[in-house]
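A quick aside before the break. I want you to see a complete sequence-to-structure record at least once, exactly as it would be stored in a machine-readable document. Don't worry about memorizing anything.
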Amino acid sequence: MEDNPQVCVNALIYTNYLKLANKTEYYSIFISEKLSIIRQSNTKMFSGIQITGVIFVLVMCYFTYLFYVRKDYPKTDYLFWNLIWFLFLVLVLYPYATQPMLEVLGLAMNIHLYTIAGFMIVFVVLFFQHDLLRKNQNKLDKLVRETAIDNAKRKK
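That is the input. The structure line, written in tokens, reads:
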């Protein structure tokens, strides 16, 4: 070692930094190995949330079928909703199927993707419901006006 105390301090700091960097690298490798083990074990068994998701899909498929049988839904709506429930079932049973999409979008976990997609879907549905409500309101206003004019003409 040199006699200059500043050089000795810098060398000590650099040595500690290397030790810390090696430990951090070790821990990150350890954590990634543990996560891969957890992922492998999750593919073999169903978790509680997956069971809940499967029950939810089955119940929604049943309700969709009931609406179709009662003629509340045409066949296209019935097929559309069953497709939606099937896609939801696939995402529940195979949550790591969205992993490539997570990397592209820069998201950390599946729940972030599902939450963002859920909000987007809710807002799209809300937008179309609002449009449908306005159209029905205009039709109702027109019908009320026509009925009032017809009633006024009959009284004369």
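Two observations worth writing down. Residues 5 and 13 are 12 Å apart (CA to CA). Helices lie at 5-44, 48-69, 75-93, 99-105, 110-155. We'll return to this after the break.
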